[in-house]
Request: fold
Amino acid sequence: MPDTLDRARTPLLTLITQEAVDRDYQVAAARASGAGERGPQRGYRVAVVLVVGLFAMLVTVAAVQTSQNADVDDASRASLIERVDARRATVRRLQVELAALRSANAVAEDTLRSLGRRYADLQARRAQLGSLTGFEPVTGPGVKITVDNPAYAGANEKLRDSDLAMLVDGLWDAGAEAISVNGQRLNPRGGITNVGEAIEVNGVGVAPPLTVLAIGDPRTLRSYFVETQAGQRFLALSNQYGFEQKTVDVDELHLPAAPGGLRQLRSAVHVPDRPQSRGGEMP
Reply:
């Protein structure tokens, strides 16, 4: 406010003269001050140049480092791709081997099933042959015949091996499928013999009472037995010498296997079936 009042009170000519002089002093002072600041401005410019150079150097180093990292990254990427390709090739090879193994396994399973069926058939065939030949235990319905000497029988009135053989032959002819005497299974390798008065079956001595088990159809074994020649002769001897006998039907009999095993044929040779000529005669 004082300056404004002073300017208002000062005459116009005097005010113009004073302001002109003040402006000259300001220009001179500005020039003087500009000459004094040249040194600091020069230092500032040098610092700026240094900073710019340092920044350029940093940019250059960063570019070189980035280029080197890019080369490393490219090498790592190429190595990774190579490893992936190698693993894929290994997977393809293993897949081919797996397919081959699966195919071989399927063939092996088919062969195993075929062999299993053949083995089962052979086992069934073996059991059938064993049953027919007496070398396998069997079970089934049939008849049980008990035969004994008469009370106070004389030497000529006792059971003999021939009497037992006639009984067994009659049962075979009547349709018996398996026969045992006192636990001894009859088979082609065994037989009924005697040593003096003792009776032997398969080489094992048996003594009356004799228990004869015969597997077959109970409904026909009895009736067919009396119709066979061996059965009629045995019944006649039984009536003549008074043999004590008893026959009963049994729903389930268990006959053991014959002693010993199958022997390999030495003299007999299997002859295959040959076609017959006209009239049923062999050529």
